[in-house]
Design goal:
2 domains, Rossmann fold, 10 helices
């Protein structure tokens, strides 16, 4: 059985998950951005894995590029499709929403899993940002020796074995998504968060009258560089959607941003800032090096 593992990653978390799965399942590892220039994507594999981070969980949780990838993916009806989404603590209904998208493409999701591999800023840290204007980058997000982070890594290794066995046996029906009661309880919160997303991204994009999905691409208008920038161009090279050009040693964002903030995370000089990353802490998976993020396509 041929297997293909498609992934999208900004911090490296989803890359590590995809690498681990490709190794255990003896599958081919393919970067989603590396195939997005195709009019359609026709896979000859019998098994397709889709690995990505959760973005805007209260809206859908699925990055725009993953939605566009699914729109191009053909002949899904004969495929065993599974997914794993990485998150910071709140995946919401991402797996459920992904299943609906795949069904609209004529296929079905056999199984969907979630895994937390990073630690979000605490409410106290966010309050310090709002009221004291402290930069969240001053707070340690959990280095490789952090007990919290090590616990999450250990949990992933155990879950990797479960997913590998499940997929290898072509089992179906495992969906890590909230139950009806939890969705009812969370409905007011999600409604509030969608409103807050809309307000924030109208400010970031400087455009008040566009749908939220279009505002996401324009939110890079708030990126800027400080005096530490030396024009090395790593931000442009690490951007998975080629949204950055370096002009006269200065990065220029081109307004088709995915909000993966890879440029911010991987800048070696800590030179990228702006309101778009005001509530973010620099973090990338401890196993991932910059060279790994610069490879557009990795095969196993």
């Amino acid at each position: 059985m041929n297997k293909e593992i498609y992934y999208f990653s900004g911090t490296g978390n989803s890359l590590v998950v995809a690498q681990d799965l490709a190794l255990e399942l003896n599958g081919k590892l393919i970067s989603i951005p590396s195939v997005m220039d195709r009019v359609s994507i026709k896979s000859e594999a019998d098994v397709i894995g889709i690995i990505f981070p959760v973005y805007f969980a209260a809206v859908s949780g699925i990055p725009l590029i993953v939605k566009q990838f699914l729109d191009k993916l053909e002949n899904l009806s004969t495929k065993y499709v599974f997914a794993v989404c990485t998150h910071k603590g709140g995946p919401g209904s991402t797996i459920e929403n992904l299943r609906e998208m795949i069904r609209n493409q004529g296929g079905d999701l056999a199984a969907g899993f979630t895994v937390q591999l990073s630690i979000p800023p605490s409410p106290l840290e966010k309050m310090r940002r709002v009221f004291l204007h402290q930069d969240l980058r001053n707070f340690d997000p959990g280095n490789k020796d952090s007990p919290q982070l090590q616990l999450k890594v250990a949990k992933w290794k155990r879950k990797l074995e479960i997913i590998t066995n499940y997929v290898s046996n072509f089992e179906e029906g495992w969906f890590e998504t909230p139950g009806r009661l939890w969705k009812t309880i969370m409905a007011p919160y999600n409604l509030f968060m969608r409103f807050m997303y809309s307000v924030r991204y109208k400010q970031l994009s400087e455009v008040p009258n566009l749908p939220f999905t279009e505002l996401i691409h324009l939110a890079d208008k708030s990126f800027k560089v400080n005096e530490k920038c030396n024009g090395c161009g790593i931000c442009a090279r690490v951007c998975p959607v080629r949204n950055i050009e370096v002009v006269n040693t200065t990065p220029i964002w081109l307004h088709h941003c995915e909000n993966c903030i890879a440029c911010f995370e991987w800048c070696p000089k800590d030179a990228i800032e702006g309101e778009i990353v005001a509530y973010e802490r620099k973090f990338h998976h401890q196993q991932v090096k910059l060279r790994d993020m610069l490879k557009p396509n990795i095969s196993q």
